[in-house]
Design goal:
With about 280 residues, this protein is an alpha+beta fold. It is built from ten helices and eight strands. Helix 2 packs antiparallel against helix 3.
Length: about 280
C-alpha cells in the first residue's frame, strides 16, 4: 500500500496546504504521513476509511488520521477540497492531539462529521483565511495559520458535540429508520451490531432489543435476508458464477453462502437459477 508524504504535494518547507480534486473513478487504497481533511464540493460517492464506508455528500467533512488506509469510490464526477496538515505544522504534540481527539470516542475512530449551513460558512471563511495567509506570507504568518487551524478545530469539536447530542435525543424509531437505511446501503459489507450501535450512540444490548422489537428479527438475520435476496436477483438476472455472487453479496466462504442460500430459499443456487433465469 502506498504511503504519501506532504512533500509530494506542497512546496519544500510548507507544512499546510489546500488542493482541489475532480475524480470520476475509484482511487487506490493508500495512507498519508500527514493529517488530511476532505471537504466535498459537488457530487456524491463513498469514502472507505479504515475498513468502514461513509457516504460522501456536500455538507460533510472527513478527517483522515495519519497512517489510516482509505480510498474513494465516486458516483459520477466528484469534486472535493483537501486540507493537508503535516504533524510538524503544530507547535506541540498536544496541539496535534487536540485535533485528533475530536474524531475519536473512547472506543471508535469516527472520521465523518455533518455540518450545519452556519458551520459550513465558518469553515469556508477559515479555509479562505488560511489560503490568504499562505499566499501573502507576511510577518509571522505561520503563527496566524496555527491560530486559524486551532479555531477550526474548536468549531469541529462543537459541531461533533452537537451532532452526537442531537442523535442521542432523537426518537428511537427515527434512529432505527436511519440505521436501516445505512444497513440497506451497506449490507454486503461486514457490519456488526456493536459497530452499528456505536455509530448511532446506543448501548449494543439496547440497540439489539430495539431492532428485534420493531423488525421481528435480529440484525444478523436481517442482513442475511438482504444478502440472499440480492444473490437471488443476481442468479436470475446475470451470468455471474455462484462464487462471484457469493463474494459480491458479502460472503468470504462459498460453502457458507451455499448452505445459507439453501436454508432460506429451499433450493441450491444452481436450481434457483434454472427455475428463475430471466
Amino acid at each position: 500500500m502506498i504511503n504519501y508524504y506532504i512533500t509530494e504535494y506542497l512546496p519544500q518547507g510548507d507544512t499546510l496546504g489546500q488542493l482541489e480534486h475532480t475524480i470520476n473513478s475509484r482511487d487506490e487504497e493508500h495512507t498519508h504521513a500527514y493529517f488530511d481533511i476532505i471537504i466535498p464540493i459537488s457530487g456524491e460517492g463513498r469514502q472507505f476509511i479504515d475498513g468502514k464506508s461513509y457516504d460522501i455528500k456536500c455538507g460533510n467533512i472527513y478527517f483522515i488520521d495519519r497512517s489510516i488506509p482509505h480510498f474513494i469510490i465516486p458516483e459520477g464526477e466528484l469534486r472535493y477540497r483537501e486540507l493537508l496538515i503535516a504533524a510538524d505544522f503544530f507547535e506541540s504534540q498536544t496541539d496535534a492531539g487536540e485535533l485528533r481527539r475530536i474524531f475519536y470516542t473512547d472506543s471508535e475512530y469516527q472520521p465523518a462529521l455533518s455540518l450545519t449551513e452556519e458551520e459550513r460558512g465558518v469553515l469556508d471563511f477559515i479555509l479562505r483565511s488560511l489560503e490568504r495567509e499562505n499566499k501573502r506570507r507576511a510577518g509571522d504568518f505561520r503563527t496566524l495559520m496555527r491560530m486559524w487551524v486551532k479555531l477550526m478545530g474548536q468549531y469541529f469539536a462543537r459541531a461533533m458535540e452537537r451532532a452526537r447530542s442531537e442523535l442521542a435525543n432523537r426518537d428511537p424509531l427515527y434512529v432505527l429508520s436511519v440505521a436501516l437505511e445505512y444497513v440497506d446501503k451497506h449490507f454486503t459489507e461486514n457490519i456488526s451490531q456493536e459497530e452499528l450501535a456505536e455509530r448511532f450512540r446506543y448501548n449494543s444490548a439496547y440497540f439489539s432489543r430495539m431492532f428485534k422489537k420493531h423488525k421481528g428479527m435480529n440484525l444478523s438475520d436481517y442482513i442475511t435476508g438482504k444478502r440472499i435476496d440480492y444473490a437471488a436477483e443476481l442468479l436470475s438476472g446475470t451470468d455471474m458464477s455462484a462464487e462471484q455472487i457469493s463474494e459480491t453479496v458479502g460472503y468470504k466462504s462459498k460453502p457458507q453462502f451455499y448452505n445459507t442460500f439453501v436454508r432460506i430459499k429451499g433450493v441450491t443456487p444452481r436450481q434457483y437459477r434454472l427455475e428463475n433465469k430471466k
